[in-house]
Write a sequence for this structure.
């Protein structure tokens, strides 16, 4: 499975650092929605779903988090532990977020508005959707 991590350009000087993200330049799609997860309790696993058409870019803007990606054939776990790289998550990709560090903030840029109909929350249904189970 190809893991697409995007280096995000930092504008740093003696005052500190800043990252600016523009749609279709730094984020590979038009951004329709941004949300962030914070205050995630120890031991919690979030996500556990796939999307039929939504694309996302995940940026851990504070702390660290592990992201499991599963395309129905292969699984890869990616550590996000800095605010200057983004992990692209395509549609048809099962994802699980775990091991949130204390105070971690995971920001998500999404290509569509929130739509519960775009979610696949059942793993067997996901495998059927991507043609890996009949
Ligand atoms: P949920 O999908 O359970 O988060 P995750 O699966 O990533 O752990 O979302 C938690 C709640 O927030 C759920 O009631 C739906 C709501 N929600 C929105 O209203 N808008 C959004 O953009 C998202 C991502 C969630």
């Amino acid at each position: 499975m190809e893991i697409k991590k995007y280096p995000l350009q930092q504008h740093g000087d003696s005052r500190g650092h800043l990252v600016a993200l523009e749609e279709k330049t730094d984020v590979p799609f038009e951004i329709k929605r941004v949300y962030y997860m914070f205050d995630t309790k120890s031991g919690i696993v979030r996500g556990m779903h796939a999307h039929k058409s939504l694309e996302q870019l995940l940026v851990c803007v504070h702390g660290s988090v592990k992201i499991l990606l599963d395309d129905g054939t292969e699984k890869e776990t990616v550590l996000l532990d800095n605010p200057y790289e983004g992990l692209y998550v395509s549609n048809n990709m099962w994802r699980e977020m775990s091991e949130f560090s204390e105070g971690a903030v995971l920001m998500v840029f999404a290509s569509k508005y929130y739509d519960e109909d775009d979610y696949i929350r059942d793993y067997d249904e996901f495998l059927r959707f991507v043609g890996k189970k009949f």
Notes: The mean pLDDT is 97.
